[in-house]
Amino acid sequence: MAERDAQKIVQQARECKGTPDPPRSSTQLTHQDRTKRVKDARNEAQKEIEDYKTEKENEYQKFDKEHSSGNQKAEEDAKKETDVKVKEIDDIGKKSGGKVVDQLLTAVTTAKPEPPRK
């Protein structure tokens, strides 16, 4: 949109529309005037393009900030839930850890020979 407007401004400057031309004695002065108008129009168009880019970048940053904050909250909730589950597992391990170790040692150290099956 801004680029299209910029092209219109540049085209108007090239055609020298909208402004009455003062009487010139030389075509060189007209050419210089036209060149100056084209350069001014390009500069103005470039400024409009930069303003438009800045505006869209700000809109994107705002959009990204709004939508990424939901992800951060979900991450925090998942971390809290994980911490609670890990604490429960640790508590269970502390409560019955000795019993489990004794059962494992008994199972490993007790030999029960069995004949192979055919």
- Shape annotation: rod-shaped
**What is the total tally of β strands?**
0
Characterize the biggest β-sheet.
none
User: Can you write the helix and strand succession as a string?
Assistant: HH
Structural class label? mainly alpha
- Quote the beta fraction: under 5%
What distance lies between the first and last C-alpha atoms, to the nearest angstrom? 84 Å
Count the DSSP helices.
2
- Mean pLDDT across every amino acid position: 84
As a whole number of angstroms, the C-alpha radius of gyration is 39 Å
Helix proportion range:
over 70%
Unreliably modeled segments: none
How would you concisely characterize the structure shown here?
The chain is an all-alpha fold and 118 residues long. It has 2 helices and no strands. Helix 1 (2-15) runs antiparallel to helix 2 (27-109).
Descriptive terms for the model:
mainly alpha; 118 residues
Secondary structure layout plus pairing:
Elements: H1 2-15, H2 27-109
How would you characterize the overall build of this protein?
With 118 residues, this protein is an all-alpha fold. It has a domain at 2-78. It has two helices and no strands. The radius of gyration is 39 Å and the shape is rod-shaped.
